[in-house]
Each structure stands twice: as structure tokens, then as C-alpha cells.
Amino acid sequence: MNTRLLNDFLTLSRANPDGLAPFSAPLASGGRIEVWDSGVLCVEPAPTVKGAKNEAAHKDIVISCGIHGNETAPIEMCERLLADIVSGRLVCAQRLLLIFGNLEAMNLAVREVEDNLNRLFCGQHGQQLESNGTLANKAGANKAVINKAVVKKTAVNKERVRAAKLEQYMARFYQARSGAKRLHYDLHTAIRPSKYEQFAVYPYMASHTYSRDLLAFLAAADINTLLLSHAPAPTFSCFSAQQFGAQSLTIELGKVMPFGQNEMGRLDRLQQCLTAELSEPSWQPPHFALTDLRVFQVCQEITKHSTQFCFHFSDDVANFSGFSPDALLATDGDRQWRVAEQEEAVVFPNAQVALGHRAALMAVVTELTDKMLC
Ligand SMILES: O=C(O)CCC(=O)N[C@@H](CCC(=O)O)C(=O)O
Ligand SMILES: [Zn+2]
Q1: Confidence of residue 310 (pLDDT cuts 50, 70, 90)
Q2: Angstrom distance (rounded) from CA 169 to CA 326
Q3: ipTM of predicted assembly, 2 dp
Q4: Going by CATH, does the domain composed of 2-112+158-291 fall within 3.40.630.10?
Q5: 149 Cα: distance to centroid of ligand 2 (angstroms)
Q6: Active-site residue identified among 76, 159, 252, 344
Q7: What is d(CA 167, CA 182) in angstroms, rounded to the nearest whole number?
């Protein structure tokens, strides 16, 4: 009965976006699937020796998708992975936490309903947003009583509740044991076309060192463009990296399309790599050359402060389009953003973001050397 429910787990989850009672089902391979909530399930592989710890399962892997509801290609790919696991075509040798993020937004075919879920991690879900777009922590909550007009949003909406729950599920998953290699792939698609169709965002690393294995994984999946973040951010991948020491990436897999209209063949390579990583304990991505990777470093962040905010380039500019030194990029009242001395590429430009949110990242070409890998 429970196995039948898993056959259409996403439909079940979307029909119950506010929560599902936990249940579990055995897998034919000997492991089991535990449903923790709508859109959240954990695959526990079979122990190799009855009653003993599974030595082969040395990785704890989180795959998340649909953190933005209209980014459907990764959602469809994750459904395929799950169908393979449920049917036994893919026998998981590693622990897996699979997350379909924003179910309400999926149902409405929108990026977000009230709040951008991918700006609510690292505890941001517990903060209040003032009408000027700045964040006030809970200690300042009495401002709402003193001047009701100041506070635009209360700290509670569905995305904030979901972010808090997802943080708890991540803790439950990773903290179930120590010593495992922790991985997190947060899968997205971009609003605009991109000069390099698939790319990854590496969350900020204070150490300025980057996982060789993670980069090799990207290369194996034919994702050859990497953007290194310049600062911590309230994103899901930054949360897992900072909070749990996971090797995490946000992976962008092409442009946003409605369900059923994605060219899924473009995600085959990534799906094959994930399948291999999940099912073959000794799988290693093949050796890769650093020179095969196109690397960008974020050099400035453009923030929308007011409704006057606008870009000074056209709406159809693709991600990674280059701008010459000193070019005017955006203005917001008296503020302006220009390219510095070296050509800069624009990533994720979006003038429609909420006040106080990032409206674009600007990046310069850089290189990674062996010394920067760990
Ligand atoms: O195309 C866009 O403007 C946004 C696509 C997207 O959702 N990207 C993520 C990147 C997260 C990160 O910086 O790691 C986001 O903006 O949340
Ligand atoms: Zn996204």
C-alpha cells in the first residue's frame, strides 16, 4: 500500500502541500524509504550485514529541487530518479534525502508565492522584513506594535514555515551519524537563457578552497561553468555548507520551462552521474583538468533598494553576457552600479526581486589552481 503511494509521491505531495503524515515502505532491494513530510523522503540503504552498519553507505547525499516552484526540469529529473529507486532499477547504496521544495509554488506554476524560499535559509525565515527591505531580527519585533506601518510582512508565511522545516530535515538527515561524506546538490533552472547553459554556483568558502571531488562531479556531468560566491548568502546550498560542512552546490540546468516542456535529454548526463554516485559505492568521477572548467568569481552584488531600481541593459540579456569597464549597469535613486576596471559578466539579473534582495551578481573570469582544491 505504502509502496503504491510512493509511485506518485510528487502528486501526493502537491495534493498535500501543507504536510503529510510520515510513513515508510520497504524497497525490494532490502532498504527502505521513509517519507518525512510532503516532498521530503529519505532512502536508507540495506545494511550489508544484517544488523551491522552499512560500510558501503559512506555518503549522505541530499538532492533538492523545486525550491522555486516553476523550475520544473530538475523536478522532473528527480521524479525519474525516485521512480528508478522505487522500481528497483536504481539500488541506492548511499543514504539519500530527496526534497521537492516549494509545492505550493509548483501548484501555482510560480517561482515563489509570498517569499523567495532560497533567501530564507540560515535562519532568515525567523526574521521580519520591513517595508524598506531591510531585515529586522525578532528582538526588534515590537517595532510592529509601535508602528504597524513599518512592518510589511509578518514572520510567518508558508515559505518561511517550509524553510524552517527543511532546515530541521537537513539536521535530522546529516546528524543521524558522523563520519559520512556530506553532499548537497540543489537543482534549479534560470529565468533567462545563459551563454553557458548549465552552470553551478559554489557557495562562499571562507577558506577559499574548493572540493576536487565536487568539481570532478560537475565535469563528469558536463557542467563546465562554475561561479564562485563572494559572500555567505541565505541560500539552501550555503546553509548546508555552513551548517553541516556539506560539499554543496546550486546547479542551474537551463532555462525555466513549464512542466512537460523540458528537453529532458539535456539532463541525462547529470542523472547518470547521480545514479552512479548513489548506486556504486566505489564510483569516482573521472579525473578532470582544471583548464576544462570555466570559472567566474563574483566581484559585486547589485541590490534592489527601492521601486526606482532599474537595469541599464535590455531584458533579454543572457546570463554571463559581458559588460565593458565603467559601463553603467543599474541605478536606484542616487545609487548606481558600474563595471570596474575589468570586463564583468552579469548573472541572474532580475529587477522584479523584493526590496533588499539581490537583483544581480557581477562576475569576473578567474582561474582555480591545484592549491585551491581540497
Ligand atoms: O535566473 C535567476 O534569476 C535565478 C535562478 C535561481 O533560482 N538561482 C538561485 C541561485 C542560488 C545561489 O546563488 O546559490 C537563486 O537565485 O536562488
Ligand atoms: Zn531557482
Answers
A1: very high
A2: 45
A3: 0.99
A4: yes
A5: 31
A6: 252
A7: 15
